[in-house]
């Protein structure tokens, strides 16, 4: 439905304004491609251009409502609500452009999954509960012997290395998010966190981080350990 409405909006805009009517969509595509090349967060940086889709939605809804009103009034003249009336969107040329714009929008919609085919998956999201238990068994056995020790499994999100030598990050555990901050100025990680990694976090009551184990294949490796504890 969304693709059809945007296509109708593009058709109306083309018939009414020609190439000027397609400029918002060109800006939207160019801006989105820039975000992709820069590998930035689309949900935040796309806000300045999200009005463009609503613009075409509005044109489509107005065009559809006008045709419905004309049908119900048996093609009687309708009072104009804008300075110039929209052209007949059922005309041959307009139908041709509607189909063309629909194909264009569908092509854009399927470009993302097609592009993902050629990209190597950096982090796997298919770990099952038995696999997680098997990976946990690869951790040092003495971790499970201390009652105050808590082992958390989750995904690293938004790691940020501060100028003062600290590292802050969120960790998605099941459906909850936990925030942590480490001092890595004199004790850096053996492998930098970039976000998306699935790790085991060894903590004391889910507050103080003692060590971090990263998943490598079917085993785990320690990438960081607190100076205050050693296992």
Shape: elongated
**Biggest sheet architecture:** 6 strands, antiparallel
Cα Rg: 27 Å
- Count the E strands: 6
What amount of the residues lies in strands?
A: 15-25%
Secondary-structure element series: HHHHHHEEEEEE
How much helicity do the residues have? 40-55%
Enumerate how many helices there are, as a single number. 6
Order of strands, main sheet, comes to 3-2-1-4-5-6
Gap from first CA to last CA: 57 Å
Would you tell me the overall average pLDDT? 78
Structural class by secondary-structure content: alpha+beta
Low-pLDDT residue intervals, each spanning 5 or more residues: none
Output the keywords.
alpha+beta; 6 helices; 6 strands; 23% strand; elongated
In short:
The chain has about 230 residues and is of the alpha+beta class. The chain has six helices and six strands; from the N terminus they run ααααααββββββ.
Structure, described:
This protein is 42% helix and 23% strand. With 231 residues, it is α+β, with helices and mostly antiparallel strands. α1 packs across α2 and α1 crosses α5. The longest helix has 26 residues.
Helix and strand topology:
Elements: H1 2-17, H2 19-38, H3 42-45, H4 51-72, H5 92-117, H6 129-136, E1 149-161, E2 166-173, E3 176-183, E4 198-204, E5 208-216, E6 219-225
């Amino acid at each position: 439905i969304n693709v059809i409405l945007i296509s109708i909006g593009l058709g109306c805009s083309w018939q009414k304004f020609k190439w000027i009517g397609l400029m918002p969509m060109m800006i939207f595509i160019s801006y989105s491609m820039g975000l992709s090349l820069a590998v930035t967060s689309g949900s935040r940086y796309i806000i300045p251009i999200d009005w463009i889709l609503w613009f075409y939605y509005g044109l489509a809804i107005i065009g559809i409502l006008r045709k419905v009103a004309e049908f119900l009034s048996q093609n009687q003249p309708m009072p104009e609500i804008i300075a110039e009336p929209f052209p007949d969107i059922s005309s041959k040329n307009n139908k041709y452009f509607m189909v063309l714009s629909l194909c264009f929008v569908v092509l854009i919609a399927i470009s993302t999954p097609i592009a993902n085919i050629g990209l190597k998956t950096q982090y796997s999201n298919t770990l099952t509960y038995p696999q997680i238990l098997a990976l946990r068994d690869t951790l040092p056995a003495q971790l499970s012997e201390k009652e105050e020790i808590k082992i958390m499994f989750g995904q690293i999100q938004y790691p940020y290395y501060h100028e003062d030598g600290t590292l802050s990050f969120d960790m998605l555990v099941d459906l909850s998010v936990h925030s942590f901050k480490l001092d890595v100025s004199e004790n850096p990680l053996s492998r930098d966190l970039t976000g998306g990694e699935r790790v085991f976090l060894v903590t004391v009551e889910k507050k103080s981080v003692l060590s971090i184990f990263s998943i490598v294949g079917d085993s785990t490796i320690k990438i960081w350990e607190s100076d205050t504890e050693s296992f």
